[in-house]
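Question (not urgent): is this output format expected?
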Amino acid sequence: MRAAVMSAPGVLELEDLPDPTCPRGGVLIEVKACAICGTDVKMLQNGHRDLICPRVLGHEIVGRIVEGDSPGMGFADGDLVQVWPGIACGKCRPCQRGNDSQCRSMKILGFNLDGGFAEMMALPAESTRRGLTILGAGVDPALLALAEPLACCINGQELARVSKGDTVLIIGGGPVGCLHALLARIRGAEKIIISELLENRIMAALRTQADRVVDAASESLKEVVSEETGGQGADVILPSTPEVKVDDSMMRMLAPRGRLCIFSGPKVENGRETVDVRSMHYRETTLVGAYGSTSRLNREAVRMIASGELDPGWIITKRSSLDGIDDAMKHSGLRLGLKAVIDF
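Got this back:
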């Protein structure tokens, strides 16, 4: 099979590899689509603490089962499936409580194990138990590859308790910021504000039908939030880019009982910021983290896209074959559009 292999930071090459074999209790899939995440770009550029090279990246995956060794699991050869990238044990306390994204022995496809930028993948038994969702006939695999980032957004909004009547501030108008806006509206948000620096992404953010799209290069976000909320502040803030600091100045844009979700992984240099805990006490504000998604939320994201409840198709601004993965990575890394997807 052919695969895009990262052999070192900055080095991604197409290689011919032996076809994988079906693992005991697992399945062998033919990859049909794998979307590029900002994390893929960061890992390629800088490496990652969980990454041992050589590695096939890619964790936003849809594929077709070509062989299975999982009797009784409800899957059959030929089924098109979306893949939750977590490999969780199912036995530890977080797994038993339904929080399998916090599994004590978590491994992730495209990080610890080879991912979806390859023609074929071998998925272990843990994936057949909780990580595969069967898709109906006639669906676009590239569209369903967006279920994984949508699931992460659902996780963040559940933890931040986005609900009816909220004013939601989304900082960053990239693919995840746009997904957050679409999802927040479905969850009943009354007003959605998106802040973005890049002109092309400001134009894209307008397609979410947000109530206000702020040009962060020329407008004061603090003043806009005050203006749009009558001085009260936002009920929820969702930083959707690692380019901003989650700090006390951001907390001060919250309304009383507001919730700020640390959604995008902060840069290392921004990992230790100061917040006024006395203000949090008196104003009853909340600071909460959100990382990845559970397998349950992944299934919910698949349902929302497959049913048409949420249509993120316009967020895909580049489709490439595996041969064009360098250009697709450039499209994402330079923020030339929104989402790039590798089609097989």
